[in-house]
Amino acid sequence: MLASELIGHAAGVLTTFSASPQLYYSYRSGDVASFDLKFLLMLAAGLFLWAVYGIVIGSLPVIVFNLIGGSLWLPIIWMKVKEDYGRGRRPRSG
């Protein structure tokens, strides 16, 4: 493995799993009040677009790490949507 590939894999692991402590806390506690839905949607869209870019350039690490990263945020997005829009509530303005 080339040094550049090793650096790319290390960067992918670190950035993909950097949010793990926050995600773990949110999964366990169900507390997603501090997340902004727009932030979550933009983050997930960006990660999935990076995966598409990885497909276009043929880079397996870019594809895999960004698909994993985007997928990790999907349950949080779902929890936030349920919190903001569940039971007929409207999102708080802010």
Brief summary of the model shown:
With 94 residues, the chain is an all-alpha fold. Helices cover 77% and strands 0% of the residues.
Shape: elongated
Give the helix tally.
4
If you compute it from the alpha carbons, what radius of gyration comes out, rounded to the nearest whole angstrom? 16 Å
CATH topology: Monooxygenase
Largest sheet: number of strands, sense, barrel closure: none
Bin the helical content. over 70%
Task: Please count the beta strands (DSSP E, at least 2 residues each).
Answer: 0
Described by its quaternary structure, the protein is single chain
Helix/strand order: HHHH
CATH architecture descriptor name:
Up-down Bundle
Structural class by helix and strand composition: mainly alpha
The average pLDDT score comes to: 89
Task: Walk me through the structure.
The chain has 94 residues and is mostly helical. The chain has one domain (3-88): Monooxygenase. The chain has four helices and no strands. The radius of gyration is 16 Å and the shape is elongated.
Fold blueprint:
Layout: H1 3-17, H2 20-29, H3 37-57, H4 60-85
Helix pairs in contact: 1-4, 2-4, 3-4
Descriptive tags:
elongated, 94 residues, mainly alpha, Monooxygenase
